[in-house]
Amino acid sequence: RPQKVCLCPFLPVHPLKVSTCLYIIQHPAEESRVLRTVPLLAACLPPDKCKIMVGRRFNEDRYPELATVCRNPNTLILYPGAEATNLEEVAVMSSSPSVMIIIDGTWSQAKDIFYKNSLFRLPKQVQLKPSISSQYVIRTQPTNTCLSTLECAAVALSIMEKNKSIQETILHPLQALCSFQLQHGAQIHHSKEHLLKNGLYDKPMPKNKRKLRRMELLVNNIKI
């Protein structure tokens, strides 16, 4: 980035010391996005604590390391759903270093990766309580409580490491990124939920019944 919008001053001077290791499963389309958050996350952590794997399909033969990780009883996968346990509850019971898998992509891309890779069914599924709103305001989210990959990692690590300052440190470069972009012409992106509820959604409504139903659920505060 140009020096006047460089994010280096907002990164920690030294990588954060954490015992939890993150495996970021990144959809290939996310890798080419300019304003993605995973590089910021990786810059905050030691290389051995933030491993990025790019792809759509992951099987045991091609990814033996990932298969071993998924079979580790201390591995968690961060993906919300009816079968997921709140991470706070798991962290209270956990005393040993953990591994956490986070899927990086749009919500539809993450869903595709999660359900079409049997390896990701092996770790314990956990989720975050919807207690904070996303600060990644230069990209549209489905709902007000949907978080970017960096934000998910920041909250999760602060819970697992029992250290609130970790969240603040990791979010610092994201806040700077959004501030720089807004100063140079970017617009605040409200969530699709906010736009629909306030009559501000200016795109044609989808003709696909399934997509239309999802939008109705957003308006009526029904969890998707």
UniProtKB/TrEMBL annotation:
Signal peptide: none annotated. Coiled coil: none annotated. It catalyses: a uridine in tRNA + S-adenosyl-L-methionine = a 3-[(3S)-3-amino-3-carboxypropyl]uridine in tRNA + S-methyl-5'-thioadenosine + H(+). Its EC number is 2.5.1.25. It is an enzyme of class 2 (transferase). GO terms for biological process: tRNA processing. This is tRNA-uridine aminocarboxypropyltransferase.
